[in-house]
Write a structure and sequence with these properties.
- There is one protein chain.
- This protein is about 75% helix and about 0% strand.
- By secondary structure, it is mainly α.
- The protein has one domain.
- Helix 2 runs antiparallel to helix 3.
- It is elongated, with a radius of gyration of 31 Å.
Length: about 220
């Protein structure tokens, strides 16, 4: 490590791993903030979720690089960041494969993968990787880091399994399309055509004898 890096670590107290994790989370928070308005327009619950993720990731990143807050350098802080960001990643994966879990106007709908959300997921995975490295290298963690990772993994599996189950159950709540509603109410497509051909007025052939008799009587 050069003199500049040593001075940076000594006086600022931020290791490179914390700095890179903070940058990844700030980038992901910026992406969530960018797309939050369009999700608010779709449903307020979606918008508040994205806004909440933005606030959490931004504040957590600041906590990573805050040298004066010694409590935020404890292993529990790293473990909390790993778990919550993995839950966000797991929720994203479920909405792109199984469907949106339960809530909102489109339960069970499978979202498309976009560029912005792919960038956000890559940044979150990078932050998790740096946080795991920091947890194993923490001087207070020692051998307990592997135990914490195991507990994080167990809690994550249970959480993602619950989200997947909700996504599967939500598929039955997805509102039917307009086409299916019309088909179910009218039957086959031929019924639509036959219904448009129904006439309440007499035809030209039926009116012609009446007009002829009336003109003859006059």
């Amino acid at each position: 490590m050069g003199m500049m890096g040593l001075a940076y670590k000594t006086y600022v107290g931020v290791s490179p791993g914390r700095g890179f994790a903070a940058l990844c989370l700030l980038g992901s928070a910026a992406v969530h903030a960018l797309v939050a308005p369009q999700h608010f327009a779709e449903w307020s619950g979606y918008g508040w979720f994205f806004l909440g993720v933005t606030i959490f990731q931004g504040l957590y990143a600041l906590g990573l690089v805050a040298p004066a807050w010694h409590s935020l350098r404890a292993p529990w802080y790293l473990s909390a960041g790993i778990f919550i960001n993995l839950v966000v990643i797991g929720l994203y994966a479920v909405t792109r494969t199984v469907g949106i879990p339960l809530l909102g106007p489109h339960p069970g709908h499978v979202e498309a993968v976009g560029v912005a959300d792919a960038v956000s997921q890559a940044l979150e995975l990078g932050a998790v990787a740096f946080l795991v490295g920091l947890l194993f290298s923490h001087e207070q963690a020692g051998k307990a880091a592997s135990e914490q990772i195991k507990y994080i993994g167990m809690a994550l599996v249970l959480t993602v399994a619950a989200i997947v189950l909700l996504g599967i159950l939500s598929r039955g709540l997805s509102p039917p399309s307009l086409t299916s509603e019309i088909s179910s109410s009218l039957g086959s497509p031929g019924a639509v055509r036959s219904s448009t051909q129904t006439r309440d007025f007499p035809s030209k052939q039926e009116l012609l004898p009446l007009l002829t008799r009336r003109s003859g009587s006059s």
